[in-house]
Automatic annotation (TrEMBL):
InterPro entries: Epimerase_deHydtase, NAD(P)-bd_dom_sf, PRISE-like_Rossmann-fold. PANTHER family: 3-OXO-DELTA(4,5)-STEROID 5-BETA-REDUCTASE (PTHR32487). Pfam families: Epimerase (PF01370). SUPFAM superfamilies: NAD(P)-binding Rossmann-fold domains (SSF51735). This is NAD-dependent epimerase/dehydratase. It comes from the Bacteria. Residues 25-260 form the NAD-dependent epimerase/dehydratase domain. Residues 1-22 are annotated as: Disordered.
């Protein structure tokens, strides 16, 4: 099956979001899949941009701030005098229980804003969360009385611990205390370019395709029948970046929580063969029960090592390319997951991404960077 025409774009044109006078953006998690895309757009739009991360951001023009996001003392020491006008929180730290997720991730938002707020420069803080706001955390994922799809931003919170709720509450409290505006951006599965990210669908599926091709197996959809047959939406990292900048520079979007997805919907049963053709593998549909990537890829490290050597790939550590567990979680869901973007549209946001074209373009980008092997 041929790929979509290369002469058509994969997204509506992304406008430059001109910085307000004196603007200085701080991207928290600047090397992640979300933060790196945001840093790219900030620099392209002319913002002074700092990036808080453990290692230097790959985006040229970003001032690196090295600090331990989980240490109040480190934040106080390394953010002293930084005085950003806008902060974008795109990072989180996964823990073994939701109680720990709440403690750690709510705490990092609280400590970050407790350090930045008193500096007196902060005008806006943006927080990226996700659709587990509606689906529940990993421990109670998809259980109980869930809101109807498409998810609406005014749905009541679920009666369970959820670190997204804790982060929002810390954001709201700090904004009230220090007088800045806020926005929350609830993304679906984010697709973009980053290596070493713990939740990255495209290189995961690309690595899966490379391993099954090398071992003479089909590219079997690893998820549920519900995901295969139903409709789903995704969030391109560039779309999410533009949405954050739009909210940060649009008065009508202040103090509001938004869903942010590409704007189209796809069915995996239609998309999977097209993705397989682009990856150069033979597609196969799902089994009666999910054939998880974690199970299928057990022991794949040796195959990956051969591919790295054969194709001179840049990342020998398969765990930094593929996140089997997260893709299994997304693709194995037994229910429909779709988010509504009416609130954003009515407030003036016009971003739109073709999910299929964006996924295929990302495969090409990972190949060009020699993260994934050629077909």
């Amino acid at each position: 099956m041929p790929d979509p025409s290369p002469f058509l774009p994969d997204r509506a044109p992304t406008p430059l979001r001109t910085p307000p006078p004196g603007a200085h953006a701080l991207v928290v998690g600047a090397t992640g899949i979300t933060g790196s895309a945001l840093a790219e757009q900030l620099v392209a739009s002319g913002w002074r941009t700092s990036g808080l991360s453990r290692r230097p951001p790959a985006v040229e023009g970003v001032e690196h701030v090295r600090a331990d996001l989980l240490s109040r003392e480190s934040l106080e020491e390394n953010l002293a005098g930084l005085a950003p006008t806008h902060v974008f929180v795109t990072a989180w730290s996964r823990r073994d229980s939701e109680a720990e997720n709440v403690r750690v991730n709510g705490g990092l938002v609280r400590d970050l804003l407790a350090v930045l707020g008193p500096q007196g420069s902060l005008r806006h803080a943006a927080l990226v969360t996700g659709l587990k706001h509606y689906l529940g955390p990993f421990e109670a994922y998809g259980k109980g009385d869930l809101p109807d799809t498409p998810f609406l931003e005014d749905a009541e919170r679920l009666p369970v611990e959820n670190f997204y709720y804790a982060q929002e509450d810390e954001l709201f409290a700090a904004a009230a205390r220090h007088g800045f505006t806020w926005s929350v951006h609830r993304a679906h599965t984010v697709t973009g370019y980053a290596v070493g990210n713990a939740m990255n669908l495209v290189p995961t599926l690309g690595a899966y395709a490379a391993v099954v091709a090398a071992t003479g197996r089909p590219f079997t959809f690893p998820g549920s029948q519900a995901q295969w047959n139903g409709v789903v939406d995704l969030t391109d990292a560039g779309q999410l970046a533009d949405h954050q900048l739009w909210a940060a520079t649009t008065p009508a979007a202040a103090d509001t929580a938004f869903n942010v997805v590409n704007g189209d919907v796809v069915r995996w049963r239609r998309l999977w063969p097209r993705l397989a053709a682009h990856l150069g593998v033979e597609p196969a549909g799902p089994g009666a029960e999910p054939l998880t990537l974690e199970a299928q890829m057990a022991g794949a490290e040796a195959v990956w090592a051969r591919l790295v050597e054969e194709h001179h790939l840049v990342e020998p550590d398969l765990s930094r390319v593929a996140s089997w567990w997260h893709s299994d979680s997304d693709l194995g869901r037994p229910l429909e997951v779709v988010a509504d973007m009416t609130r954003s549209r009515l407030a003036g946001f016009g971003g739109y991404v073709s999910t299929e074209r964006a996924l295929l373009a990302l495969v090409d980008r990972y190949r060009a960077a020699r993260v994934l092997p050629p077909a």
